Amino acid sequence: MALQTQAGVSKKVQNKALVASLIGSSIEWFDFFLYGTMASLVFNKLFFPSSDPSVGLLLSYLSFGLPFFIRPLGGVIFSHIGDKIGRKKTLVLTLSLMGGATVLIGLLPDYNAIGIWAPILLVLMRLIQGLGIGGEWGGALLLAVEYSGKGRRGFFGSIPQMGVTIGMLLGTLAISLMSALPDDQFMSWGWRVPFLLSAALVFLGLWIRNGIDETPAFQEAKKTGNIAKVPIVDTFRYHWKAVLIAVGAKVVETAPFYIFSTFIIAYATNYLGYDRITVLNAVTIATLVTTIAIPYMGMLSDKVGRKPLYIAGTVAMMLFAFPYFYMLSLKSALWLTVATVIGLGILWAPVTAVLGTMFSEIFSTNVRYTGVTVGYQLGAALAGGTAPLIATALLSSFNSWVPIALYIVISGVISLIAVSATKETKDLDLDES
């Protein structure tokens, strides 16, 4: 019911599946991170105006974080569909849902135009985005992993993770281009352009995904009748330990990431006095570095294993937490860029590269979509969307970056405890998990 079915799959079909997995994931995260960046620069002023800028920023980050708590619901809904009717059809639904919400965000009037309805509608669109992305990641991951051959799962499983950074890179570049506009034009209409242009990317992604067949692993499961009646029930009945491992392992992959990529924008510009373009450029360079590093980390995991690579990346990130903020405090564009490249570009890469593959190897085919999605999205809800909010609150309360650095260290400890409860899985067939 798993990798043995890949023997008859041509390399051309495998590569097509990889592209379908990557492009959809890239589009989803382009939309998602576009909002995250705008929450730091635009929405706090246009949709959540306040006499206290810190309050406006906190409300803006709250709107960014809320969808993380609806993502598990989206994950349950779409992973149920994915384990019942297939990965491909589900991925078309998730892409359509999030893409439509993103375009509508670009069309929303602001608070000055419609008052309280502006933030209400903005949050509604964000919740719809959260539903879509809740089911997207697991499907994109399985589209790659279930088409892979034995001994290449680490590489194949790392490709959808590149979509996270490619999407972020596209979003950051789009915002950088729009930021070249005078401030009044950027705040008036420039910020809307990337949201509206995402429509073209969505149509491209739907066209590519419609051209791929269902994964061989799911076809085999359907042929043998190995389809769970209620996947979420079977997941928690037979795989609850694996779900807990996935939730814990996700923490260090997501909390530091949002601090390195999203929180840094507001922190460096509002508190340390960096120029907005300088910060965006640093994040862009770091994102490019990690995009290149991820597939190599995936291939390395096929040789040394998922667990050793994950642990090494986690420990390195914990050790770098304090040096990272110290380098930012030097108020040098060079050190800002170096710190961001090390944290986001290098140390985060091995952790995210092996995460999806590691998750897919601890669940059986009939509940794999549900298992990886629920574990991933619960972890993201607990540690991802809350990270910029917690970091901002800590900064406001203590007026120091030290508690935020400790927060990164604690996230690493949690994940190390979780991953210690699992065994190395690189040599297993998926049907042995």
TrEMBL record:
The lineage of its organism: Bacteria, Bacillati, Bacillota, Bacilli, Bacillales. Its main location: membrane. PROSITE patterns: MFS (PS50850), SUGAR_TRANSPORT_1 (PS00216), SUGAR_TRANSPORT_2 (PS00217). Pfam families: MFS_1, Sugar_tr. Keywords: Cell membrane, Membrane, Transmembrane, Transmembrane helix, Transport. It is a multi-pass membrane protein. The keyword Cell membrane applies. The chain crosses the membrane at residues 17-38, 58-78, 90-108, 114-143, 155-177, 189-208, 242-267, 279-297, 309-327, 333-359, 371-395, 401-419. Residues 17-423 form the Major facilitator superfamily (MFS) profile domain. It is found in: Cell membrane. This is MFS transporter.
